[in-house]
Amino acid sequence: MKIATYNVNGVNGRLPVLLKWLKESQPDIVCLQELKAPQDKFPEAEILEAGYHSVWLGQKSWNGVAVLSKLEKPVVSRTDLPGEDEIEASRYLEVKIKDLIIACIYLPNGNPVPGPKFDYKMRWFERLDAHAEMLITSGKKVLIIGDFNVIPTEKDVYKPEKYKNDGLFLPEVRKALENLISQGWTDALRHLYPTETIYTFFDYFRKAYERNAGMRIDHFLLSPEVVPLLKKGEVDKEVRGWEKSSDHCPVWIEIEESK
User: Is 218 a catalytic residue?
Assistant: First the structure.
């Protein structure tokens, strides 16, 4: 079973890119972030024609998350994290597909720092941490997937010294991710490739993609029940070079299906 995450940076404006990638890569399940489309403007018909059922949480102008599935229609279990989201942002969508619980997330960016956006990011992280602890103690097969807007370590970014004051790389942000993972989650790509340079995002400026000057901010966190099923994982880096592509690359893992 191939499970992917892709921050599309505008699902309608980049729909041709998304559909081309779906056709070429053929993932079974996809988590999308940054739809930038209100609920009634999601391209459900086009995605269904491509072979995917979809559920989504839209929002005008910004944010928005969706889960696509070739296997069956995802069953929605949550559309927000517990606790109050004072901004009412569409950033969390939790679904069940077969025996998997999949949480598609778009964690706040947090910039500029300091400021209310960074404070909101850290509060959102606290809510995610609390809910993730409940998920991991359920004993079920759970995956938290998406754009975390966190660079975990210095080896996950080109020239880390440039990001020392960035909301994606501040010590307290990395510590928040560490605390989350310490509940017992496994960072799938680092589990597979402990020492390799892996980037999932390349800025539109300064020819970042051409220079391989990127960062790794799109992640898969696996509960202990999923880790033994993990077979492989990759970044579809070439998609970033397509015309009118997102600044994120699609990222995917393969897991064995339950017997």
Answer: no
